[in-house]
């Protein structure tokens, strides 16, 4: 079945951001399927945006258009709990995970202890309810070690841990057993890329496979990005992603400990430093201060707060580390909660101007 509807025409590269905004505004018609045509997407909407909503859309997307188009209705998909309704008792259905991470065609899920004996069944249910998933991985234990890696068990589908992940117009080769990658940071990758100004030099201190570095370079052709990581497998994947996204002349991968690398090539070069290592970023604030240009720049500092700690305590700790490094804070440009990472724990980003 099909239906004629108002829609927003937007460039495909801006599709993910537009989808988030239209959902936030409450105007996306979720029961209709989004259309693609060449370099454009057509997002069905349930009404004409109001004046304030049009202003918000205009601030984000300068050349969007509102028109009418015929859309097909989405096929209804079953949820995991529905797929397993006749195979698990009510108490175990209530314990089924409600969320999973999708990286390319791999689904990653955390299986509660009481459902461990049913993990194969759950994996097959995920394959049945998510048509684009080819492999289902179950988490085994927490993230550990210098490389921030986690163990996984393949519980359904193809026997592999590598995939091709797409995000905001970029493609990334990822192997979740060799390099850390979180799809839950996609909006943050896009936010930082949108802040870059013409001609900036950016240093991504814990670059991984390149979700910050590659997107920044893809969006900003006159930007130079130094992408540092201590994990050789992450750097190998980063190099592949640089070639895959054709940003060879803008992203420069550097393998090694940040403390060893910065003095050789990065002293005083950066307009902007990204510090996405929330567990330990505070240990490297002095390095970031050395990397920022003498006249100043911006640091994006990621950290965790756990109750009874507060955002103010995180800011204070960062401020003291900057002062100890011999620099001063111009101002805190923004502070933002990115996501909950555990009960009473959140990942935070501080955008800070360093003088």
Question: Which keywords apply here?
Answer:
355 residues; alpha/beta; Alpha-Beta Plaits; GMP Synthetase, Chain A, domain 3; Rossmann fold; 3 domains; 7-stranded mixed beta sheet; 4-stranded antiparallel beta sheet; 29% helix; 33% strand; globular
Overall CATH architecture of the largest domain: 3-Layer(aba) Sandwich
Largest sheet: 7 strands, mixed
Helix content: 25-40%
Beta-strand fraction estimate: 25-35%
State the shape.
globular
Q: How are the strands ordered across the major sheet?
A: 13-12-11-14-15-17-16
Query: What is the CATH topology classification name of the largest domain?
Result: Rossmann fold
Give the C-alpha Rg. 22 Å
- Gap from first CA to last CA: 60 Å
Whole-number count of domains: 3
User: What is the number of E strands?
Assistant: 17
Q: Which class of the largest domain in CATH terms?
A: Alpha Beta
CATH superfamily membership of the largest domain, which one?
Vaccinia Virus protein VP39
State the low-pLDDT regions, or none.
Answer: none
Provide the structure class: alpha/beta
């Amino acid at each position: 079945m099909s239906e004629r509807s108002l829609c927003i025409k937007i460039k495909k590269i801006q599709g993910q951001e537009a989808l988030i905004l239209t959902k936030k505004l409450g105007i996306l018609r979720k029961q209709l399927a989004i259309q693609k045509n060449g370099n454009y997407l057509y997002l069905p909407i349930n009404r004409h945006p109001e004046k304030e909503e049009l202003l918000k859309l205009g601030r984000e997307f300068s050349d969007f258009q509102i028109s009418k188009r015929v859309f097909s209705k989405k096929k209804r998909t079953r949820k995991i709990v529905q797929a397993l309704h006749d195979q698990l008792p009510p108490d175990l259905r209530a314990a089924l995970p409600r969320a999973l991470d999708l990286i390319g065609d791999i689904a990653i899920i955390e299986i509660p202890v009481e459902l461990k004996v049913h993990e194969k069944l759950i994996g097959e249910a995920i394959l049945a309810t998510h048509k684009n998933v080819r492999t289902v991985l179950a988490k085994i234990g927490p993230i550990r070690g210098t490389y921030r890696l986690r163990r996984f068990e393949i519980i359904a589908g193809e026997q592999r841990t590598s995939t091709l992940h797409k995000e905001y117009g970029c493609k990334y080769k990822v192997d979740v057993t060799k390099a850390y990658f979180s799809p839950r940071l996609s909006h943050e990758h896009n936010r930082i890329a949108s802040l870059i100004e013409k001609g900036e030099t950016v240093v991504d201190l814990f670059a991984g496979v390149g979700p910050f570095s590659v997107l920044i370079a893809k969006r900003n052709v006159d930007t130079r990005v130094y992408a540092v990581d201590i994990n050789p497998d992450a750097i190998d994947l980063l190099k592949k992603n640089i070639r895959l996204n054709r940003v060879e002349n803008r992203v420069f991968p550097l393998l090694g400990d940040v403390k060893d690398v910065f003095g050789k090539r990065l002293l005083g070069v950066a307009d902007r430093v990204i510090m996405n290592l929330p567990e330990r970023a505070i240990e490297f604030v002095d390095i970031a201060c050395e990397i920022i240009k003498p006249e100043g720049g911006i640091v994006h500092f990621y950290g965790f707060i756990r109750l009874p700690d507060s955002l103010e305590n995180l800011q204070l700790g960062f401020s003291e580390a900057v002062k100890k490094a011999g620099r001063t804070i111009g101002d805190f440009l923004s502070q933002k909660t990115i996501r909950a990472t555990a009960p009473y724990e959140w990942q935070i980003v501080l955008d800070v101007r360093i003088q």
